[in-house]
Amino acid sequence: MPLQHYLKQFFAADKKYGSKDRRHITHLCYCYFRSGNALQHLSAEERIRISLYLCSDTLEGWTGLFSEDWVTAHSKEVAQRIAFIQQEGIAFQPGSIFPWLDECSPDMDTAAFTQSHLQQPLVFLRIRPRQEKQVLQVLENNNIVYSRPEQNCIALAPGSKADQLLQINQQVVVQDLSSQRIGSLFTHIHKPGTNQVWDCCAASGGKSILAYDMLPDIRLTVSDVRASIIHNLKQRFVEAGIRNYQSFVADLTSKAGIPRSDMFAGKFDVIICDAPCSGSGTWGRTPEQLTFFTPAQIQQYAILQKQIIATSATAVARNGYFLYITCSVFKKENEEQLAYIQEQTGMQVVASGLYQGFTERADTMYAALFVKS
Ligand SMILES: C[S@@+](CC[C@H](N)C(=O)[O-])C[C@H]1O[C@@H](n2cnc3c(N)ncnc32)[C@H](O)[C@@H]1O
């Protein structure tokens, strides 16, 4: 169970905690998990205290937990906070926060990646076409502090109220920076006429809305193994103004899972395969995974991904495109799947790479775009 849901249930079951208590307990639990596997030799209390020191940009409200020299030495820079606690004799190796570095994509800056878990990622919004002026006006009128890492991207501090002031899905979509950058791969797609696009692991449609906003003349088909998430997608599409699309529920581990699979062969100009994965590029948002993840899961995901690829890739039309995406940092789910797709389908790589969002307090993702010439 995600920590967020666990805490919600915990607070609902015991009403004695006021809103400030809930906020503080939540913060301490998240700090505790952010240190991953690095401070496991300490007692829980001490681990919470040291993690709090490492993860906080400011000790305001918490100074009573630390001696005066610790408070004075506290820096805004994570690297300096790490250096200080090491100098104080606490055995802390940032590399142990995330102990599966050998499994990671070779291109990754592993030192920066492990350290990034000590900081909560930002919230990113994607401005939808023709909404920029109104969106910026709302942010300015409400004195919201933001930055723009990309023309259509708004980066906000966690807990910012901006999403309550804007029309979500209509004016902006909540979408991580790396997902937004993956959208630029759609600029490689050149095809006259209608683009038949199948988002085959659609969840609530984040990538579908991105494709809708970026590809001209698009006809969407969406599916997922979970009926409940397709229900959410339909609601979201209403808000996003997407009307003409087909949807169905399908388990793509085998062709038998697709209704009328014979109708699908070679039908789609673009297939988006945003596959189920370990999510290891997003653990800055769910740091409890650093404690509960077991490496055997990497292989399980890799098998599931291969099955989904094998089923969905047969539906790519001649001169069509296949976009494989994960939010994982593991090479078994990324580069090794690229090799598998090439080998199994003969499709050619147009572009591929790891989107190292952790350098900008965003998620890390992998994408590979193929063409079937
Ligand atoms: C990474 S999420 C997709 C996120 C989505 N594209 C977005 O942008 O919001 C992967 C999705 O794959 C779905 N999935 C898992 N196993 C599947 C299977 N066997 N067949 C089809 N979809 C599956 C999950 O239900 C999940 O919604």
From TrEMBL:
CDD domains: AdoMet_MTases. The active site is at C327. The keyword Nucleotide-binding does not apply. Signal peptide: none annotated. InterPro entries: MeTrfase_RsmB-F_NOP2_cat, MeTrfase_RsmB-F_NOP2_dom, RCMT, SAM-dependent_MTases_sf. GO terms for biological process: RNA methylation. Keywords: Methyltransferase, RNA-binding, S-adenosyl-L-methionine, Transferase. GO terms for molecular function: RNA binding; RNA methyltransferase activity. S-adenosyl-L-methionine binds at D224, D251, D274. Residues 97-373 form the SAM-dependent MTase RsmB/NOP-type domain. Gene3D superfamilies: Vaccinia Virus protein VP39. The keyword S-adenosyl-L-methionine applies. PROSITE patterns: SAM_MT_RSMB_NOP. Belongs to the class I-like SAM-binding methyltransferase superfamily. RsmB/NOP family. This is 16S rRNA (Cytosine967-C5)-methyltransferase. It comes from Filimonas lacunae. The lineage of its organism: Bacteria, Pseudomonadati, Bacteroidota, Chitinophagia, Chitinophagales.
